[in-house]
Amino acid sequence: MADYATLLGSDPGLAAAIARIGPCTLRGDDGQEPYDALLRAIAGQQLHGAAARKIFGRLCLLGEQGTGDGAPPSPGRLLELSEESLRACGLSGNKLLAMRGVAQARLDGTVPSRADARTMTDEELIVRLVTLRGIGRWTVEMLLMFTLNRPDVMPVDDFGVREGWRRLRGLELPPKPKALKEETARFSPYRSTLAWYCWRMAEEGKKTAPNPLTA
């Protein structure tokens, strides 16, 4: 039995969800550097998956290799690119400025490498990275969960997580973030897994494909 199943399974509702949904398949390490992951997140803001991937792919074509193989321009290269070339990728003015800010922050060390990120706590990374333009707490939480493989992240502002918890508990309305944080504290250190099950519960019964980020 997976380590998380004992703790999460001690809750009858979660035990039933685990039995129904199956083992957690959370992809905790996508192999990206934090810098790359943040650029991808900015490209995808307020867009559906296919459109976001297309824009990010165009950005990758502007990198040093120019292959569009998933590697965006290095920080120095991105800062050298003209506004016209970046806008031609489909980036808005706000996203362009946010990406340039992330690039500069990588050069000055505010955005850490994967190796440096390993020495920092979740909250230290959140506090540091939310100072950047276009980067909110939710974006950093996704970085923690899907790039840095942090096991104990509960993104309480995420609508899907809140909706999944509402269904789990049979509530009329999704819980407020503060209440959700308090109610899920006892599931530490497996709250990333709990969030994954909440996403799956929120999607149950829907005909649309699972969110490619959280699937």
Report on this structure.
The chain is mainly α and 215 residues long. The protein has 2 domains: 75 residues, Orthogonal Bundle (Endonuclease Iii, domain 2), CATH 1.10.1670; 113 residues, Endonuclease III, domain 1, CATH 1.10.340.30. It is built from 13 helices and no strands. α3 crosses α4, α9 packs across α10 and α11 packs across α13. It starts with a helix and ends in a 12-residue tail after the last helix. It catalyses: Hydrolysis of alkylated DNA, releasing 3-methyladenine, 3-methylguanine, 7-methylguanine and 7-methyladenine. InterPro entries: Alkylbase_DNA_Glycosylase/TA, Alkylbase_DNA_glycsylse_CS, DNA_glycosylase, HhH-GPD_domain. It is an enzyme of class 3 (hydrolase). Belongs to the alkylbase DNA glycosidase AlkA family.
CATH architecture of the largest domain: Orthogonal Bundle
- For CATH, the homologous superfamily of the largest domain is named as Hypothetical protein, domain 2
Query: How would a textbook summarize the main sheet?
Result: none
Count of individual helical segments:
13
Outline type: elongated
Query: Which class best fits the helix and strand makeup?
Result: mainly alpha
Please give the share of residues in helix.
55-70%
How many beta-strand elements?
0
Low-confidence stretches: none
By CATH reckoning, the class of the largest domain would read Mainly Alpha
Nearest-integer average pLDDT:
92
Q: What gyration radius follows from the Cα positions, in whole Å? A: 18 Å
Order of helices and strands: HHHHHHHHHHHHH
Domains, number: 2
CA(first)-CA(last) distance: 21 Å
Q: Classify the fold: give the CATH topology of the largest domain.
A: Endonuclease III, domain 1
Keywords: DNA damage, DNA repair
GO molecular function, one term: DNA-7-methylguanine glycosylase activity
Domain HhH-GPD: 43-203
Enzyme class: hydrolase
